Structures are given as structure tokens and as C-alpha cells.
Amino acid sequence: MKIVIIGNGVAGTFSAQNIRNLDKDVSIHLYSKENYPYYTRIKLPQLISEQVTISDLIVFNKNWYVKNNIELNLNSEIKKIDTLHKQVFLNNNSLPIHYDKLILATGSLPNIPPIKNAKKFLRNGVFTLRSIQDALDIKNFIVSKKVQRVIIIGGGLLGLELAKQIKNRDLDTTIVEFFPRLLPKQLDFDCGTLLKEEIESMGINVILDAATEEILSEQEVITGILIKNGTKIDADLVLIQAGIRPTIDLAVEAGIKCNRGIIVNQYLETSMKNVFAVGDCIEYNEQTWGIIPACMEQAKIVASTVLGKRDKAYKGTIPKNTLKIIGIDLTSIGLFDPSDKDLVGAGWEILKNIDKKSKCYKKIVLKNKKLKGAILFGGKKAVPYISKNIESEINEDELRKVVELFKWRCKNCNYVYDDAKNDILFKELPDDWKCKCDSPKTMFERNPDNI
Ligand code: FE
């Protein structure tokens, strides 16, 4: 049996690996339009700041493919699929490449918001960052045009990580975010505020609630951006990191059912027989992902399906994101803001540890004692416990220990101050704070046995 995989990112590569683990004999052929074997995109911003080299990014070198008997075709963009004859083509004149099973792991492309002139100046002052080539182009532009001021449109994970590395090049760096807080998909308002302070303390400017309207230029050279409220911000380089969208063109043209992504069922089968899809490009249950854990999970399932087993079904992946900036520990898992979704009440419970002095924010979301999500900022001690127990029923005492939330009882009147239910930790209350019975803080004992 011959399996053809289009795409050599996380999803394509790990699908190939999982298939090989299950079957030593099938022939596996990977096609990538890029010029590099599988590399990690996580560190692309560091390529711009020259903190890593291309070889640092390569996860599997060419020997890995040889050892696993996987044929790797680089610089080989598949341009057409003929599902009727089970063939793919590199271009209009090329010989057909036959497949028995085809896996689409075409990934995603950077989303470019409708900003006037953004497309006109793309790769000439306006860039997105998705590949090694993009990073090299940005770096070359910075050097050759003697760039001093950079705007990053998009205050999501990738935008922030990119901003940090731009700042590391000693450039004037400004993040412009459409939403009124940073990381709108990962944080609630309170934590977004804390993060903004941290980012600004690194010397990065942050402008929130700002819709970019136009890329400004003079004599075909970009000079900055115009925000909808009329503000102009000067820049020599504009980087757009405004999310990703599934790459579906090839599938659409082949008549495979697509919506935002390539539509798959729980076995990652597309609407076309013998064609499967995996990774950022898919849409399952009206959802798309675009995170590495989802790719890894799906790669296992698709491997099993293409080999005819159909013993594993996909149920979706709980989002888990960690900001990768040195000096900031931030992880967001699952459902972190039930208030956003009108879910408060009905068994939902929120435990919070807001330690403003040490700039820590821990928020745990429970439903009927089941752990549904968390935001962990300013420390990663609790991350393994939360990751391990997500969607499980948990012991509240154990949880409170992990996230350091205590109950304090007044020895005079038995009033209980619960760290988890107040916006200020007991230890953070001013020294002259008084219990409602007028007792001072010193009358309180921490975590007495019988409450
Ligand atoms: Fe009291």
C-alpha cells in the first residue's frame, strides 16, 4: 500500500511516524513545498533575533526519514489532486503520483485582516511569520533597510513572542491589538492587565482596542499605520500575527467538502474516499485547532484509520497554550472564563489566587468538582497538576495546596476568609485590616482543620 502525505509540519510528520510504528511495510511518501525537513515553528521569532540558527530548529534531520523508511520530497508542492484516479500532481505537466491513501496535512496560513495596502506591501515592508523563509526575509529586511521601528499587529501568543524577539534586536517595538486585552483567546481581563504591565516593563509598547485601518507609505516605502480612531504610528516594518486559517485550497479544488477547514469525521476521514486530513487544516465538529497537542493527537488517529483499523475516534483537543517568553510564565488551559459564556451558576465555581505583589495570578475553573480550565500566570508549579487533571474530578484540598489558596479563620468570631473567593489574598490585606468582629489579622489561623 502506498500512502502519500501532503505537508511536513507537525501533523504530517507525526502521522508518518505513527503509521510506521504500526506498520513496517507500507510505503510512505511525504511532500513538502518547503526546503527543510521537519522543524519547529515555535522558535521562528528567535531566528529573527539570531538567538538560534536554522539547524537548531530542525527536529528530524534527513537521516531520521531514511531510518524510518519514509520518502521525503522537499521543494515539492502538490498543486492538484485527482481523487477519481487516485493521483496527485506537482504541476500541470508533471507525471501523476499514485496513492492508495492520501493524507492532507496542509496546515494553515497566516490570517491577514482587511487592512488597506497590507497585501500590496506584503514581503516589502509588511510580513507574516509562518516559515523559516519568512523569518529569513524579515531578518534581511531589518538589516538591509536599517529598520528602527517595528509594529506587530496582533497581541496573541505569536505576536507577543515575536515582539519580544524584535525587542531583543534593540528595535523600537509596538504591539497593536484589536481586542481590549492581550491574549484575548487565552486570558481574562484581570490577567490580561497583569501581562500588559509585564510586557511594557520589557520596553515594548502596547496599544489595545485598536483596529488597524491602513498601511501608510511614501514613495512606495511604508512609513507606519493608521488606526481607526485616526492615530498614526510610525514604523519601517509591520509584522502581522493575527491568527491563522486552515489551508484548504487544494482540497476545495478537488471537490472535498470544506467549510473553514477540511471537514472530517471522528476518524479523520474527509468526504472523499481514501482521502484523510489531519492537523491545522481540519475542521471537526465545527471547530478548528491550530495547536501542537491537537496535531499530535490527530496524527495517532489518522495513522490507525489509514491502516484500516478505525479503532480510535477523535473527540477534540482541550486547548492548552503556554507563552514562550523568558521571564514570563503563563499557561492557559481549557475553559478559563465561564462568565464570558453565560455559564455562571449551574455548578460552576471559580477559585482565584491574585497576588499583586509578586505579580501572580492563578484562576481555576471547576464545574461540579470537575476541573474545566485554568489560567496560571507568574509561576509554573501548578501546571503539571492542572494539565494532568483537566476534565477530571478533583479533590479540592489537594487543588488548594497546589495553587496555594488558604482559608483563614478568626479565632474570636469564627469568620472565615477564603483566599479563593476574594480578589485579595489574606496575606496581602493591609496590616491594619480588621475582622468584622474588630479583631486584627493576627487573630486569624491558617487552614484550621475543621473548615
Ligand atoms: Fe472575627
CATH class of the largest domain: Alpha Beta
Distance between the termini: 64 Å
Strand arrangement, major sheet: 3-2-1-7-19
Indicate the low-confidence ranges by residue numbers.
none
The gross shape turns out to be globular
In words, what does this structure look like?
The protein has 451 residues and is α/β, with parallel strands linked by helices. The chain has four domains: 2-43 and 59-109 and 245-306, FAD/NAD(P)-binding domain (3-Layer(bba) Sandwich); 126-242, FAD/NAD(P)-binding domain; 329-393, no CATH class; 406-451, Single Sheet (Rubrerythrin, domain 2). 22% of the residues lie in helices and 27% in strands. The chain has eleven helices and 28 strands. A five-stranded parallel sheet has the order 3-2-1-7-19. α1 runs parallel beside α9 (292-306). The longest helix has 15 residues, at 292-306. Fe (iii) ion (FE) binds at residues 410, 412-413, 415, 435, 437, 439.
